[in-house]
Amino acid sequence: MRKQARTIRLALGRVAVADRLYSAAIHLLRGVRKQDVATGLGPAQLSALSVVVFAGPLTLGELAAAEQLKAPTMTRIVAGLEQKGLATRRIDSEDRRVVHLRATAKGARVLHQARRRRIRSLAARLRSLDARQLAALNRAAYLLERLFHRAR
């Protein structure tokens, strides 16, 4: 009976931690996303550009799957990135139905600048923490990275 009660408390503890992490992650991302206005890109374009920069080159289907969007929606997003000179499309020489996407140098530069702005914004918020709190967050970040890398 004691073991069962402990198991229930542990499970409830995990749910409570998951709830707090979920809420904190949303607030964190909303806070740093405010910096993205400077790019002139919408969230969907910036997200797709990020995948192309860090995982590309890749096919339109691979990008759509990574962004959890349907191909027609992704086609419109990529067309906008192309128009702005941030990405290029190349038709596969062996299978003309396949389109390969690649970030341009300008696209990579825009993405890296956006990332730096987000990180600076977050670092500014971290200034209010003392060394012990900062170390605790660093450890938590490490644990989250381990959790999600293991899940892949």
Description:
This protein is mainly α. The chain has one domain (2-151): Arc Repressor Mutant, subunit A (Orthogonal Bundle), CATH 1.10.10. The protein is 72% helix and 8% strand. The protein has six helices and three strands. The protein has helices at 2-33, 43-55, 60-67, 71-83, 105-126, 131-151; strands at residues 58-59, 87-91, 99-103. A three-stranded antiparallel sheet has the order 1-3-2. Helix 1 crosses helix 5 (105-126), helix 2 crosses helix 4 (71-83) and helix 3 (60-67) crosses helix 4 (71-83). The chain is extended.
> What is the H/E string?
HHEHHEEHH
CATH evolutionary superfamily: Winged helix-like DNA-binding domain superfamily/Winged helix DNA-binding domain
Share of helical residues: over 70%
Q: Kindly name the structural category.
A: mainly alpha
What Rg is obtained from the alpha carbons, in whole angstroms? 20 Å
CATH topology: Arc Repressor Mutant, subunit A
What brief labels describe this structure?
152 residues, Arc Repressor Mutant, subunit A, three-stranded antiparallel beta sheet, extended
Produce a short descriptive summary.
With 152 residues, the protein is mainly alpha-helical. It is built from six helices and three strands, in the order H-H-E-H-H-E-E-H-H. The chain has one domain: Orthogonal Bundle (Arc Repressor Mutant, subunit A).
